[in-house]
């Protein structure tokens, strides 16, 4: 995974959050730390309500829930299907 992300020069990593799969989230945090990505976003289970669990900070990386980050952007800037 790390080699693929390095080759792609990934700066943002989106992964299953701790509610969905704690092991995947732990791996994503380790990968984000090793690659020094700009942001690490957690996915939540479909139909989840409320803010979601607090996510542990990671030095030099924005860590948050994807739905919260997306809510801060105007809908008209989102890519539209063809």
Q: How would you explain this protein's 3D organization?
A:
This protein is of the alpha/beta class and 82 residues long. It has one domain. The protein has helices at residues 2-8, 22-35, 66-71; strands at 12-16, 39-43, 62-65. A 3-stranded parallel sheet has the order 1-2-3. The protein is globular.
Strand and helix layout:
Blueprint: H1 2-8, E1 12-16, H2 22-35, E2 39-43, E3 62-65, H3 66-71
Parallel strand pairs: 1-2, 2-3
Number of helices: 3
Number of DSSP E strands: 3
Uncertain parts: none
* Percent helix: 25-40%
The portion of residues forming beta strands comes to: 15-25%
Q: Please state the structural category.
A: alpha/beta
Q: Cα-atom Rg, whole angstroms? A: 13 Å
Q: What characterizes the major β-sheet?
A: 3 strands, parallel
Shape: globular
Report how far the terminal alpha carbons are from each other: 30 Å
* Subunit arrangement of the protein: single chain
SSE run: HEHEEH
Strand sequence of the main sheet, in spatial order?
1-2-3
Mean pLDDT: 91
* Tally of distinct domains: 1
Nutshell version of this structure?
Helices cover 33% and strands 17% of the residues.
Features:
3 strands, 3-stranded parallel β-sheet, alpha/beta, 3 helices, 17% strand, 33% helix, 82 residues, single chain
